[in-house]
Amino acid sequence: MNKNLKNSSGFLVAISASPYSQYLIKWTCETAAKRKSRWLAVYIQTERELTKEENELLKRNLDLVNQLGGELIISMDDDVPAGIMRVAARHSISHIVIGKPLGYKPALFRKKDIIKTLIKLSGETDIFVISEQSIRAEKKPFFLKLLSGAVAVNIRGYLLVSVWLLLLVVLNLFLFNYINYLSVGFIFLAAVTVVSLFCRRGPVLYFAALSAVLWNFLFLQPRFTVYIDHLEDLFMFLMYFLSAFIIGNLTTRLRLNEAFLRKREKNLEELYRMSKVLNESGTKDEIIQKSTGLLKEFFSAGLVLYLNDENNSLSMLPFNGSDFALSDDDWKEAFNVFENRQTLFQTQGSGYCYIPLLTGSIPLGVLAMNLKDKGDFTVEQQDLLTTLVSQMTAAIERNEYNITQQKIKLAEESEKLYQILLNSVSHELRTPITTIATSANGLIDDELGKNVDVRKIFADDIIEAADRLNRIVDNLLGSLKMESGRIMLNLEWYDVSELVSAAVKKMGKILKKHKFTSSLDNDLPAVKFDFRLMEQLLTNLLYNAIMYTPEDTFIHLNVRADNDDVVISIDDSGPGISAEDKEKIFDKFYRSRRERAGGLGLGLSICREIAEIHKGTIIYEKSRFGGACFTVRLPLQRDEIKENYSE
Amino acid sequence: MNEGGMILVIDDEIQIRRFLRISLESGGYNVVEADTGEQGISLVTSVNPDVIILDLGLPDIDGLEFVKRLRQWSKIPVIVLTVKDSEKDKVSLLDNGADDYLTKPFSVNELKARIRVAFRHKQKGTEQQVFKSGKVSIDFDKRIVMVSNKKVKFTPKEYAVFTLLAKNAGKVLTQNQILRELWGPYFQEESQYLRIYVMQIRRKIEDDPANPEMILTEPGVGYRFMTDEEAL
């Protein structure tokens, strides 16, 4: 036995709407557990509709599968053995368990012998045929129930066709005065076809057989006997019988098949609609709202959803969009479902079904649907409901996963930005400090300090480095102040030429390495601005022009009045700014990748802030001299400038 | 004086280059400057300097990358200019072939001392039989160590550590370099061994082992053997 066990093992138990399936399920569960193997249960749904009792039995079987922790697969196939094998192949099953009725004998010719066919189809798969003997005691009551149920349902159909047949016979007896027995036969045959469009197979065959007999008895010579005189009439009768039988059989089958397909298509469509809705939903709330909306529509039943809270326990409050709230007892039931992770269909009592939103770890919540008035809730509908709920769960989970991913990415990016910032701040501050320290060291060196020229060089370096340090500190503090939004504008009336000369003076000798020129309109009006801030703006722009262009190229500063604005522009003849950088140069901490001169990437962002709090603008353009051109516009409408700036 | 010694300075900050040029030229060295790593590499081949002073914060080539590339074909001593708080960078640079480092800001004397050591190690090609520096003399043949004319008894491992440091007098040695040299490549992480030996050696040779004057600790990097001759 053991050597037959394949390693890709898995047990598949085939169950039906029969009480014996309970034993099969338990047997499979135990056997699979012993072999530390997984197990699944399959129910193949055929075109035959189940009676209410059968449905109940089937639900009980399926519940048992759920309780024992097996995976449940419901598949539609009119050919049961083929359906079982299809499911087995899909789930790489090595062992199939099937029940054997008491007193089973392999049929020689019967097609419907499931066990025989299954063995024939099985190939490498092992088939376990479990005898039902061991539960014989339970057999009778269920069997009787089953029988009475089956008959009770069909009896209406038989009565109906009997009445129709009676009416038809009366009609034909009347018509027989005008037409011959052959035409009567055709009328009967047409009636069989019509009946088969509306009735199940049983009543149709009953109708076909009875109509044949009545035709013979009432219309064939000799009339009112079962005898048939003429050989041709006998053939006719046999042909009639055969045709009626085949037509009845085929039509009902076709019709059932069609209904079967339609149902399947409806399920598929519902699944498709659900996945479409889920794909289109962005947020968790949207996913839940839309999918619960669809569930209500599909099953026309009210539902309530409880999600798990921050403590990973089931919330006591229903989610928005729920139709009702559960009573305390029912909530406890939902909580049990949450804990046990198993679907519960409560057929008696409250009539709720509870479906956990299962994930890899803790369930996301429990959905409860009110099925109180849905006595005919079939197994397929149950299956569809759980499938739809698991689709919804997957979408919520995916959504949450995406959100976490985004958060992680954001954190990583801000960490990276922080690192870059830290590096550039420390580099920017240290470089001038190093220069100051080393140059000062050179000054006090016995040998080097004696040389007057060398001392001058070192002193100049120290001054320049101190200026640089000053600018960095100004920009850092400026940036902090702007960020805090509590900068106090010190607005006064100034001549713009004062501002220009102050800024140029502040630049000191580093401006002398370039050919710097400036031109100012003669009739510039006075402008109200914060002198210190505007000076910072101008020195930042000039400093950039110096740092990013080669020595001995020209820098031109122009101030002019333009309608209601005063316009300050600084042109250089350097390499300009690439299209890629153009968009970002005013962003805080942005530094061009080509940049060699260092810097914090704060200068231009502060320039923009300063321009904006003066209700002005700053833009970059390509200079008509080939390099970069920064243009600052300050409005002359003084009243609009607020005394206190705050975001 | 080291007449004619050629030093290549690679730094993108003009002020630092200027300071180095003035200081080194006053010390009698010839100085060639480069402001990028690529220019530095090409100057190495064209002027064949005796010592290279390399700034770590070059805009084009990472300092480590520069050293790795250089070491594929050249043994020219490299002194790296670094900033504080970059012990990890220093160690990986030294382990990858840089000879020494200077932390900015540095003094003229520190600079000159490093350059002197670099020149001496470059010139001293073959193994010496006797090492003599300040208070310390070592006879490698007889395995005798004298400190202030007194014989010091070392265990074999202590002797190995001590002589390795002495042979590289003035130069920093990373813990990894020492461990790899004396214990082999598989003990590189076992820095506590080394710490114990250095402690024992210090007890035997230092006047005040708590304030060592000969075997100095470079925090986070390694050890440097200093003699009077190398002192600042």
Question: Which SSEs are present, and which pair or pack?
Answer:
The complex is a heterodimer of chains A (647) and B (232).
Chain A: E1 11-15, H1 20-34, E2 39-45, H2 52-67, E3 71-76, H3 80-90, E4 95-100, H4 114-121, E5 126-131, H5 136-175, H6 181-198, H7 201-219, H8 231-280, H9 284-299, E6 303-308, E7 314-318, H10 328-340, E8 344-345, E9 352-356, E10 365-370, H11 379-444, H12 452-484, E11 491-494, H13 496-507, E12 515-520, E13 527-530, H14 531-547, E14 554-562, E15 565-572, H15 579-582, H16 603-613, E16 617-622, E17 628-635
Parallel strand pairs in A: 1-2, 1-4, 2-3, 4-5, 12-14
Antiparallel strand pairs in A: 6-7, 6-10, 8-9, 9-10, 11-13, 14-15, 15-17, 16-17
Chain B: E1 6-10, H1 14-26, E2 30-34, H2 37-47, E3 51-55, H3 63-71, E4 78-82, H4 87-95, E5 100-103, H5 108-123, E6 130-133, E7 136-139, E8 144-147, E9 150-152, H6 156-167, E10 172-174, H7 175-183, H8 191-205, E11 215-218, E12 222-225
Parallel strand pairs in B: 1-2, 1-3, 3-4, 4-5
Antiparallel strand pairs in B: 6-7, 7-8, 8-9, 10-12, 11-12
Could you characterize what this model shows?
The complex is a heterodimer of chains A (647) and B (232). With 647 residues, chain A is α/β, with parallel strands linked by helices. Helix content of chain A is 54%, strand content 15%. Chain A contains 16 helices and 17 strands. In chain A, the strands form four sheets. Chain A has a five-stranded parallel sheet with strand order 3-2-1-4-5, sandwiched between helices. In chain A, helix 6 (181-198) packs antiparallel against helix 7, helix 7 (201-219) packs antiparallel against helix 8 and helix 8 (231-280) runs parallel beside helix 11 (379-444). The two termini of chain A are 81 Å apart. Chain B has 232 residues and is of the alpha/beta class. Chain B has two domains: 6-123, Response regulator (Rossmann fold); 130-225, Winged helix-like DNA-binding domain superfamily/Winged helix DNA-binding domain (Arc Repressor Mutant, subunit A). In chain B, helix 1 links the parallel strand 1 and strand 2 (30-34). The model of chain B has no long low-confidence stretch (mean pLDDT 85).
